[in-house]
Amino acid sequence: MTPRRFQRVCRVLDRRQPDLTVLLDNVHKPHNVAAILRSCDAVGVLEAHAVWPNPRLRPGNHTSGGSRKWVEVRTHRTLEEATEHLHARGFALYAAHLSAGARDYRDVDYTAPSAVVLGAELTGLSREGIDHADEHIVIPMSGMVQSLNVSVAAAVVLFEAQRQRREAGLYERRRLEPEYRARVLFEWLHPEVAAYCRQHGRVYPRLGDDGEIVDFERG
After folding, report:
1. Average pLDDT over residues 191-207
2. What is the pTM of this model?
3. Could you give the C-alpha distances from 195 to 14, 48, 158, 206, in angstroms and in order?
4. Would you say 176 and 121 are in contact if contact means Cβ atoms under 8 Å apart?
5. From start to end of the chain, where are the E strands?
6. CA distance 137 to 159
7. Pairwise pLDDT comparison (168 vs 142), residue with the higher score
8. Rounded CA gap, 73 and 24, in Å?
């Protein structure tokens, strides 16, 4: 690993926003999942969440290209389980849904812990996704169509969140606790060794100042 590469990985990690995320409510088309995860990576989302009730529709790891390596996807069995998990961590859930009380997406304060809830392109959010949201948001449309492609909608909302967070200075300092940052950094730099350690119940080995592994042997 070159010093330049190592420094770049560290810079990206130190801009990650642990309190900004998306929750995918049965968004299963591979190209949509890939595009959403790319937007997540671009704005500094650390971890995305997803519910795929139908296992046959669950996208494989390859569908998101390289973005899946940099944005962990935590899956949940049900929408209720996912929303309980996020609420317990202090997230407000903003569901992209055209309801009578929906707010303009730009009127939301995304500098607080925020999860953007997105439904499948054709069917939209599930009833649980609609009911468990704290608020509904909408992207105003001036044309004949009423909505954007789900991946485009995700990008629009996420980049508004990024704008607000930049103005608030949230990208100017590390947001991750040191121990957690060290774990994620190791997994980013050495994913195969990290997977081996998890499989065999081993503690991650120490990293040197250059990001290389110090004193590790398999077996």
Report:
1. 93
2. 0.90
3. 23, 19, 30, 15
4. no
5. 20-25, 47-51, 72-76, 92-96, 103-104, 114-119, 135-138, 206-207, 213-214
6. 15
7. 168
8. 10
